[in-house]
Write a structure and sequence with these properties.
The protein has 224 residues and is α/β, with parallel strands linked by helices. It has a single domain, classed as Rossmann fold (3-Layer(aba) Sandwich). Helix content is 27%, strand content 21%. The longest helix is centred in the middle third of the chain and has 13 residues. The N and C termini lie far apart (43 Å). The model has no long low-confidence stretch (mean pLDDT 94). The structure holds S-adenosylmethionine. S-adenosylmethionine (SAM) binds next to helix 2, strand 4 and helix 5.
Length: 224
């Protein structure tokens, strides 16, 4: 049992900032930090010493939506690093959104919070969606169930070999023609996600670690 599950106040470092973590949220993971690098690269901002970023491909004031925000670590980090962006954060879990709001207050980041199953209650079209949704398949033989038991199952597991929510988000994003989508998943799931995304009008730009970066490209032959 870790400190978060014993109701102590626990903080976890993410991209150089400490985030409040409670038993209602996933503990931010180091592999998710590469999602921030991917967004900074899209925005033409330096993210690693010695690595030249691409040219900015985002609008001047991009609307960025973090779906499944949990502790808010992604949304808050992006709001701090991209002050021109309008950052939104959604989650299906009310208790998780409470934690995310506290973290946003701590860092003084003006984030709009939305309680929603994926994009159901989202009333606008973001320029970029970022999402670290649950992608763990309960049947993976290598799972350390003991160490995951202190985190909410809602934050970890998904049906369809861990891909149910990611696939739904891809379909919803494609229906709304969201220009860019950055997702986290286990590398063993990447090829399935790439194939599914391609058949829903999303072309892969790059993978980095656990992160997949897609651009919407309308393809009339793609099947939904
Ligand atoms: C893997 S955690 C990621 C948390 C945080 N973004 C991070 O990277 O540390 C997934 C989050 O997705 C949320 N979630 C689960 N099902 C969802 C759904 N159908 N719609 C929106 N959010 C959902 C969970 O409550 C959880 O906070």
């Amino acid at each position: 049992m870790n400190a978060a599950s014993q109701n102590k106040t626990v903080y976890q470092d993410f991209y150089g900032r400490d985030f409040l973590v409670t038993p209602d949220v996933l503990i931010p993971r180091p592999e998710t930090e590469q999602l921030i690098d991917a967004v900074l690269n899209l925005a033409g901002k330096p993210y690693l010493p010695g690595v030249k970023p691409s040219r900015n491909v985002l609008p001047e004031h991009p609307k960025i939506l973090d779906v499944g925000t949990g502790s808010g670590c992604i949304a808050v980090t992006l709001a701090k690093l991209l002050p021109n962006a309008r950052v939104y954060a959604s989650d299906v879990s009310k208790p998780a959104l409470k934690v995310a709001k506290k973290n946003a207050e701590t860092y003084g980041t003006p984030i709009s919070f939305i309680i929603s199953h994926l994009l159901e209650k989202v009333k606008f079209t973001p320029d970029l969606i970022v999402a670290n949704l649950p992608y763990v398949d309960k049947d993976w033989g290598w799972l350390d169930r003991e160490s995951l038991s202190s985190e909410p199952a809602l934050a970890l597991y998904a049906d369809d070999h861990g891909l149910a929510l990611i696939k739904q988000l891809i379909v919803q994003s494609s229906t709304r023609k969201v220009p860019r989508l950055i997702l986290e998943a286990d590398p063993c799931q990447h090829q399935t996600i790439i194939d599914f995304a391609e058949s829903n009008n999303y072309q892969l730009n790059e993978t980095r670690g656990f992160i997949l970066n897609f651009t919407y490209c309308y393809n009339p032959q793609a099947s939904h």
